[in-house]
Amino acid sequence: MALGLKKMPYRMIWVAEDDEETPMQLVGKKITPIIEFPGEPAFPESTDIINRVDGDARFGPPLLKPKTERPELDAWLKGLSTPMRNLGRPRYIRSAVLPEFRSSSARQRFVTTHPLPDPVTGETLSKPDWAALPQERRDEVYDHYWADSGHQKRLLNDALARMPAGLIASDRHLSGHGLSWDDIVFFSRLRGITLIKDVKLPPALDAYLSTMSEMTDVPLLTQMAM
């Protein structure tokens, strides 16, 4: 997002979900994203990357204002989180065009490291406990939520409809003080909703996502929605 906002040219290399070797060679651990400036060592962590891009005078003046405390925003996002997760994760591994999930081993790695709630109890296991389940059981849970898409979409649409009036200040910035870290966090979290077909986005949210996608040069997932 920061590179797009600054109109900086860059080359993107996708790292497959199951590729541990590449990030280990670059930064010593399994992590993405990673950035490498010419003549400098590579380094990871989204926050550090954005701070560098936005704060380095060679790339122009800073654009991002500080993050604000917005409890009404946090509460609304919390209401979206469960149906978004239950709908999104089964779709990531079924998309034929998301490059990090093109191989079966990459898709299986994602399932192994991203728990979903038990369909009966609603309990979400810790990552170690989830990973310890048999692969067949993890696949069953993912298949359940794929088959349960209709119900999960109704839950998501109900939560979206409860978006407070005025929550989004402008289609060019989330909060009233202008483009800020609020936008980095919010757009990153809500972009994935565009992978879910037949979701009823409130007009203000729809306009915001479309405009922010253009501003940051980060495409939405609408064309591959399922």
Automatic annotation (TrEMBL):
The domain of life for this entry's organism is Eukaryota
The family database entries (SUPFAM superfamilies) matched by this protein are listed as: GST C-terminal domain-like
Q: Which residues form the signal peptide?
A: none
Which InterPro entries does the annotation name?
Answer: Glutaredoxin2_C, Glutathione-S-Trfase_C_sf
Q: Which residues form the Glutaredoxin 2 C-terminal domain?
A: 156-225
Q: What name goes with this protein?
A: Glutaredoxin 2 C-terminal domain-containing protein
The record lists the organism as Prorocentrum cordatum
